[in-house]
Amino acid sequence: MDFAFTEEQEMLRKIARDFLATECPKDTVRKMIKDEKGHTTELWNKIAELGWPGLIIPEQFGGIGGSFLDAVALVEELGRACLPGPFHSSLMGTLAVMRLGSARQQQELLPKIASGKLILTSAFSEPGTGYELDHLECQASAEGNEYVISGTKLFVENAHVADLMLCAARTKHDGRQEGIDLFLVESGAKGVIRQPIETIAGDKQYQVAFQGVRVPEGNRLGETHTGKDNIRKLVELATVLKCAEMLGGAQQVMDMTVTYVKERVQFDHPIGSLQAIQHHCANMMIDLEGMRYVTYLAAWKAGDNQPFAKEAAVAKAWSGQAYKRICDLAHQCHGAIGFCEDHDLPLYSRRAKTYEFALGDSRFQRRFVAKEIGL
Amino acid sequence: MDFRFSEQEEKLRQEVREFCQKEPPETFPCEIEDEGYGFGGWSRAFTTRLGQKGWLSIAWPKEYGGMGGTTMERFVAAEELAYHRAPQYGHLFGDAVATGVLRYGTEDQKQEFLPRMAKAEILFSTGLSEPGAGSDLLNTATRAIKDGDYYVINGQKIWPTGAHLAEWCLLLARTDPDAPKSRGLSTFLVDVRSPGVTVNPIVDMAGAKSFTEIFLEDVRVHKKYLLGQENRGLPLVFEALEGDRFWGRCLRHAGSKRDLEELVEYVNESKYDGHRLKDNQTIRDTLAELAVELEVSRMLNYKAAWLLNKGASISWESSVVKVLADELGQKIASAGLDILGPEIQLEDGSKWARLRKRFLFLYVFCRGISLAGGTSEIQRTTIALRGLGLPRS
Ligand SMILES: Cc1cc2nc3c(=O)[nH]c(=O)nc-3n(C[C@H](O)[C@H](O)[C@H](O)COP(=O)(O)OP(=O)(O)OC[C@H]3O[C@@H](n4cnc5c(N)ncnc54)[C@H](O)[C@@H]3O)c2cc1C
Q1: Which of A103, A166, A355, B239 has its CA 20 to 30 A from that of A361?
Q2: How far apart (Å, rounded) are the C-alpha atoms in residues A44 and A86?
Q3: Of the ranges A86-95, B84-93, B340-349, which one carries the lowest mean pLDDT score?
Q4: Tens of pLDDT along A57-67?
Q5: What is the mean pLDDT of chain A?
Q6: Is the pLDDT of residue A198 over 80?
Q7: Is A342 buried (19+), middle (13-18) or exposed (0-12) by CB count in 10 A?
Q8: CATH topology of domain A121-224
Q9: Is A98 exposed, middle or buried (0-12, 13-18, 19+ CB in 10 A)?
């Protein structure tokens, strides 16, 4: 048993932390919330120079060839820094292409993704359906050597800056349903209508309507039909990455709070010497430690090609609530200063709520866990 | 990162599993029933049987009757036993005492105690708390006065678990009343069958005789039973408590997994007001939530075991383990009883009689688990001071 990251992973984390401290200060993060685009090309290019978009892409396609755990280590740091922009959403698309794409699609797309020239996102959930997939309504009907996609997608992250969207739709051949597939749709294609959704964290989420969008047959991901299970697996991977991002954020909230309560003096003593505050901090720590190791367990299993659906659900069920509790207590410890718009804390506490919803909230995850324990 | 157990550890787990099938732990008589800490009841007979297998001393050096294995192996064996509801109460705290003897004991002490502990010829209790020294151990008033080759001990201990069932006790007493409070304490290995020692069981709220009070009147303890240096007992006690928090709580996930499985079985098979319980979303959500928290507890226990196995300190990690385990234990007891419902109090002789009896008992007893071994408030303070470096008040 080994609970530690490798030396290389620790190095990656350190590089990321240092880089983000200078290149992505909180003022930038705040500015990007109000910015329509939500990220700067300059920062994206620097990230691409570091090779992060290709971290898990095999070397033969111009990537670094890192493992899933490497990605988890990095994403944790990105969460700590609240990195804005399309990195996370593109990573999910990258995983889809790597796992499900045909040789031709990989050859064509992965090098571009690795170099940062191609940004992806995914369009899965719909109004009224979350991530269960069974009730998807978006249709892709085969017409000649094209598919015609019609439907509406919700919470498509960074749809405005992504070049390609991975849209999950029910495939129909001659009126016959053939299960769910993923389609690569250019975001500027005719019939794609993107509308921003206001979220609590100011991240860039979109409603995307596909109105009879025509894509060539070759844009269906993979050689055979994708199937629900494969898409589920992708969602599970994304869930683990989301947990890692939340973990990084929660760690930063913990660190900020500890620093603050050691410095802030009231009644002639640092408030961190007061037991009420100490116990708030201890509760944060217990939640945080829990987040850390259920997330790492899911991540390790995923990277080790073991089944990890239950572990991912457990990690997200716990993290969704624990991160929120951590932020609540952090606010209480900070007093009014943490209640200001230009303080760093709200960046995290707002995200904590958004991330709780992302990829299924805790109740959603527990519905799955209930089945897993035999109910 | 790698969360697999080693081949050696898995082999041992398999051996333990087979042992539990051949010699079902529930067939051994218990002196104290399973109080829901996760490690089962107190059974001299079972502890003795484990001693014969060599499983009480897995991680101790061979020259002292140990198996020369690792702490992780010790943990894996305990975890597997806990899942089979094996009664480990009688000896698990011995691990903390043994660690103290191995680290601070003289060669003679190691020779005298460890081989006998390994065979369960003697069991230990821990005598720390006193009427005036609960959370505030520094307030210990029991006195030990040097008299030639002996210490003469006078005072009173209260709450030691199993002191009426164990032969020996790790006892904290004041040897220098003039030194600052933290500097005048020493630890002794005391045979509670010695003249002048009176041990009375106290009936706890759940009706069990689990803890005791000990009166010490001019008890003569040879100086060779002083553990560690005179007046330097406190660090030793803190380390022992660290071990005690860990070994006393690290099996929550394994022990409670069984409880959860049985609740799931009950829910799957039962109806109330004409509705199947398994269709009740609140019940499903509650059980899933417990399953999630058990996983969290499991991983935190593994992490502490991993640290311990490396020889690292678990000063605050053991407090994280304990708070989570205890509060989760209370949640399980409470949620379990809610699910079993009010009628469970009436039913007798039904298929679920055993489950009912268990949860009624756990529900009452679980009030004590967040007190025993240091209250949750004390643990939280430890996490804040040791884990987060916050200033003392
Ligand atoms: C089932 C059981 C088994 C036990 N087994 C043993 C044993 O084997 N050996 C042994 O020596 N003892 C044992 N104990 C005793 C146990 O260690 C003490 O009960 C415990 O340390 C608390 O002491 P107390 O009961 O005197 O409560 P107190 O110390 O009086 O505490 C009462 C309340 O005040 C709070 N409090 C006290 N000090 C502080 C502080 N500084 N900051 C914040 N809150 C504080 C506590 O958290 C608690 O909520 C056992 C107790 C129980 C219930």
Answers
A1: A166
A2: 9
A3: B340-349
A4: 999 999 999 99
A5: 95
A6: yes
A7: exposed
A8: Butyryl-CoA Dehydrogenase, subunit A; domain 2 (2.40.110)
A9: middle
**Atom 4 of ligand 1, residue of closest alpha carbon:** B372
| pLDDT surpasses 80 at A175 | no
B212 and B159 inside one domain: yes
Q: Which residues of A touch B380 (CB under 8 A)?
A: 278-279, 282-283
Q: Which fold has domain A7-118?
A: Butyryl-Coa Dehydrogenase, subunit A; domain 1 (1.10.540)
List the domain range (segments joined by +) for residue B279.
250-387
In angstroms, what separates the C-alpha of B217 from chain A's closest C-alpha?
39
Q: What is the dihedral of CA B258, B263, B265, B268, to 10 degrees?
A: -150
Specify if B67 maps to a domain.
Answer: yes
CB contact under 8 A, B303 and A293: yes
pLDDT digits (tens, 9 = 90+) for B121-161: 999 999 999 999 999 999 999 999 999 999 999 999 999 99
Q: Is B115 on the interface with A (CB under 8 A)?
A: no
Q: Any chain A CB within 8 A of the CB of B279?
A: no
Which of B182, B204, B232 lies at the terminal end of a domain, its last residue? B232
**Which of 1.10.1200.10, 1.20.140.10, 3.40.630.30, 3.40.50.1820 is the CATH number of A229-372?**
1.20.140.10
* A129 vs B392, residue with greater confidence: B392
CATH number at residue B353: 1.20.140.10
Distance from CA of B327 to the nearest CA of A (A): 12
| pLDDT for B94 beyond 90 | no
Q: Domain residue spans in chain A? A: 7-118, 121-224, 229-372
- Residue positions counted in chain B: 393
pLDDT of residue B350: 78
Chain A residue with Cα closest to B382: A282
Q: Are residues B85 and B135 in the same domain?
A: no
CA dist list (Å): B193 to A355, B148, B171, B199: 61, 22, 14, 9
pLDDT in tens, A361-372: 999 999 999 999
- d(CA B387, CA A322) in angstroms, rounded, equals 18
Q: What is the pTM of this model?
A: 0.95
Q: Which CATH number covers residue B81?
A: 1.10.540.10
Which residues have C-beta within 8 Å of that of residue A320, sequence separation ≥ 6?
A: A246, A355, A356, A361, A362, A365
